[in-house]
Design a protein that fits this description.
Elements lengths: L2 H24 L14 H27 L2
Length: 69
Amino acid sequence: MKLVPVLLALVGVLLMLAGLVFILQGMGIVGPQSSFMFNNPTWIYQGVAVMVIGILSLAAGLFLSRKRR
């Protein structure tokens, strides 16, 4: 097992989780109300962008791990 595909997949999962937190904070669902991200629609869009990057990273890691087999 090569290290690069595993790292890409791990980074992808972490980015997707971070993007989800950004989205939920932007929607005002999680986080303290005193946070600058709380109930701020800008963070919804940024969270979606981070999630898309995470999905692409995860897909690249999975593709590379299957390609090497």
